[in-house]
Amino acid sequence: MPNGQIRKALSGYYYVYDEGKLLQCRGRGVFRKRGEQPLVGDFVEYAKENEGSDGVITKIYPRKNALIRPPIANVDQAILVFSVKEPDFNLILLDRFLVVLESHRITPIICLTKMDLLSENEKDDIQAYIQIYQEIGYEVIETYKNDPTLLAKLEPFLKEKTTVLAGQSGVGKSTLLNTLIPQLNLKTGEISQSLGRGKHTTRHVELIEVAGGLVADTPGFSSFDFEHIEKEDLTACFPEFERKKDECKFRGCLHLKEPQCAVKAGVESGEIQSFRYEHYLDFMQEIIDRKPRY
């Protein structure tokens, strides 16, 4: 059984949480030889020669997932922060993020910021999209600038979960992290008007206790690729496609040109949103065009 969890990594040291205390540890040399690296979020065993000495991590337990940016393991969920304005709501990027999270078996929670900047017509459009994603099965949280209820909206989702934040730059990730973890005092960069995207600073990764759960103290990935996803796995990353796949005539149907495909029929009947199917086709082509890895 593991006797601790890595909560912080900094300058070659790993800080292992065990029964209310953080213990400074080094990783064993054997991890380097095997090409393994302990990650924040790993459940580990460690040994300690005496009371005053550093510990040594001797074993890393199997992970349920691992991310590269931020370098963190055993993530339960990601709060996907997307603005509806400044920058504008980006549907294909949202679906891209959702696909990668689904592929890692990380539960997405969609958090839409800057709702107060919308005109009445724009609000109607966004509400229609909110309903679509809720019907697929995603949680959607709406927030506005300087929202005093933000913490109350997020807290119920955090208990007993390890959570990371993700989203495009300039959408309010740092603001949201500052709300969750006030001691961070992250600099919230203004959007660069020329680039249309925000600025961010990379920091070490630490898991901090918030509302009975753990939150990574750094805004995560601002873009995703599909390097680890094979074309046969893409359907499983679209929950509404996954629910229909057993109705397809052919087992392993990729929902492209196959006859009697239940997903394509669902698009034609309006049961599946056409924009989601178009994004699926775009992502599938990207995976097919990917250079082979040797």
UniProtKB/TrEMBL annotation:
The CP-type G domain, residue ranges: 64-224
Cofactor binding mode and count: Binds 1 zinc ion per subunit.
Required cofactor names: Zn(2+)
GO molecular function annotation: GTP binding; GTPase activity; metal ion binding; rRNA binding
Residue ranges annotated for the EngC GTPase domain, each copy included: 73-222
Intracellular or extracellular location(s): Cytoplasm
EC number: 3.6.1.-
Keyword annotations of the record: Cytoplasm, GTP-binding, Hydrolase, Metal-binding, Nucleotide-binding, Ribosome biogenesis, RNA-binding, rRNA-binding, Zinc
Main location: cytoplasm
Pfam families membership: RsgA_GTPase, RsgA_N
Residues that bind GTP: T113, K114, M115, D116, G167, Q168, S169, G170, V171, G172, K173, S174, T175
Keyword check for rRNA-binding: yes
Record function comment: One of several proteins that assist in the late maturation steps of the functional core of the 30S ribosomal subunit. Helps release RbfA from mature subunits. May play a role in the assembly of ribosomal proteins into the subunit. Circularly permuted GTPase that catalyzes slow GTP hydrolysis, GTPase activity is stimulated by the 30S ribosomal subunit.
Known partners and oligomeric status: Monomer. Associates with 30S ribosomal subunit, binds 16S rRNA.
Family: Belongs to the TRAFAC class YlqF/YawG GTPase family. RsgA subfamily.
NCBIfam families: ribosome small subunit-dependent GTPase A
Protein name listed in UniProt: Small ribosomal subunit biogenesis GTPase RsgA
Organism: Ureibacillus thermophilus
